[in-house]
Amino acid sequence: MADRRIIFATGNEGKMREIRAILADTGMEVLSMKEAGIHVDVVEDGATFEENARIKAKAIAAVCGEIVLADDSGLEIDYLNKEPGVYSARYMGEDTSYTVKNQNLLERLEGVPEEKRTARFVCAIAAAFPDGSVETVSAAMEGIIGYEAKGENGFGYDPIFYLPEYGLSTAELSMELKNEASHRGKALRKMKQVLEKRLSER
pTM of whole model > 0.85? Predict the structure, then answer.
């Protein structure tokens, strides 16, 4: 039954694991684009995370006619004028490994005191519905940039993003704790409420 499916516009397996864990009790089947057999390249040229998420969700929904969720997320470092921001995935080139990206950011912050290393992960999620409407939510996780990369559990910039209240980097958190604290976890829970409301109105 197509209306019990959600297509999530990502090919990132780490992200899909987080998404499935949080949306597990909605009774909806959550598929990645690849699993749904959708191969569309979307140019994300928005100026904000919200714009990019909307562009992606609408483009994929136009192809499949199903409920499509798309997120755009990234890291904002205050000392670096909120870089890498919306260019987080493309920072230093899309094919550059995160080990290199993380090392570069640590070098750019060398000698910067802890109180000036404030940063946040931001996540915007857009839901495009078959009737053409789009709803967007967003959330953030505040922290600081650590002094070295630590932890094996995360992906992307997780090893350098440090949560003072836990005394750990986001790559050192358990999956459960990360889903609770993370920008994506918070945004997904907001989106879950939007979906449940929409589905109950049918």
Answer: yes
How far is 60 from 28, CA to CA, in rounded Å? 18
Q: Residue ranges per domain, the chain?
A: 2-200
Please identify every residue annotated as catalytic.
Answer: 72
- CATH classification number, 2-200, choose in 1.20.210.10, 3.90.950.10, 3.40.50.300, 3.30.450.20: 3.90.950.10
Residue that has been written with the tokens 């909307």 in this structure:
54
> 58-64: which pairs have CB atoms within 8 A and are 24 or more residues apart?
58/126, 58/128, 58/134, 60/7, 60/9, 60/33, 60/128, 61/128, 61/129, 61/130, 63/38, 64/7, 64/36, 64/38
CB atoms within 10 A of CB 78: 14
* Pairing mode of beta strands 29-32, 5-8: parallel
pLDDT in tens, 53-85: 999 999 999 999 999 999 999 999 999 999 999
Q: Which region, left, alpha or beta, applies to residue 31 given φ > 0 means left and ψ of -120 to 50 means alpha? A: beta
Residues near 175 by beta carbon (within 8 Å), at least 6 away in sequence: 17, 18, 21, 153
Bridge-partner residues for 125, per DSSP? 71, 137
